[in-house]
């Protein structure tokens, strides 16, 4: 079984759970932070800056919104159509320091009924079955205080 990041450059993946971070970019001219990372220009329309640096995002944030996903997403979402679909929980997390909201799935076993707006969550590595023996590393949001 091969384990690889689902999207290269969007998060750290070499260390353990405590070192797992989403990676953004920061414009050196205006300090705006972008996720997913940008590699060619500042997305701030009021900035002419072009020098970007890697900026690890906060590991913790607060739930801004959430919902459950009851339908299989269409391609390019990776899933085996022969496997029965299992609903998942999608979480929008506000990162106060970066002044942004980042989407992601909740850890397996956490349902929408387990969450509340304002609840503190942390980013942790997750997995997605890429088929053919490949497991893709992704990020999940886990309520603080809930063990894996």
The average pLDDT score comes to 88
Q: What overall geometry do the principal axes of the alpha carbons give?
A: globular
Subunit arrangement of the protein: single chain
Class by alpha and beta content: mainly beta
Extended strand count: 9
Structure description:
By secondary structure, the chain is mainly beta. Helix content is 0%, strand content 43%. The chain has no helices and nine strands. The protein is globular. The model has no long low-confidence stretch (mean pLDDT 88).
Quick structural gist:
The chain has 148 residues and is mainly β. Helix content is 0%, strand content 43%.
Name some characteristics of this structure.
9 strands, 0% helix, mainly beta, 5-stranded mixed barrel, 148 residues, 3-stranded antiparallel sheet, single chain
Helix and strand layout, with pairings?
Elements: E1 2-5, E2 23-27, E3 33-34, E4 52-56, E5 60-69, E6 88-95, E7 100-106, E8 120-131, E9 134-143
Parallel strand pairs: 1-9, 7-9
Antiparallel strand pairs: 2-3, 2-4, 5-6, 5-8, 6-7, 8-9
């Amino acid at each position: 079984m091969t384990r690889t990041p689902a999207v290269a450059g969007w998060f750290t993946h070499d260390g353990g759970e405590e070192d797992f971070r989403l990676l953004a970019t920061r414009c050196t001219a205006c300090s705006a932070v972008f996720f997913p990372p940008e590699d060619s220009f500042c997305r701030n329309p009021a900035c002419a800056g072009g020098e970007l640096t890697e900026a690890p995002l906060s590991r913790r944030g607060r739930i801004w919104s959430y919902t459950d996903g009851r339908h299989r997403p269409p391609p390019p979402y990776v899933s085996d159509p022969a496997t029965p679909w299992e609903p998942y929980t999608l979480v929008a997390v506000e990162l106060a320091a970066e002044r942004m909201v980042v989407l992601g799935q909740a850890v397996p076993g956490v349902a929408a009924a387990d969450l509340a707006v304002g609840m503190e969550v942390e980013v942790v590595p997750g997995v997605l079955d890429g088929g053919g023996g490949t497991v893709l590393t992704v990020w999940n949001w886990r309520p603080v205080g809930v063990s894996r």
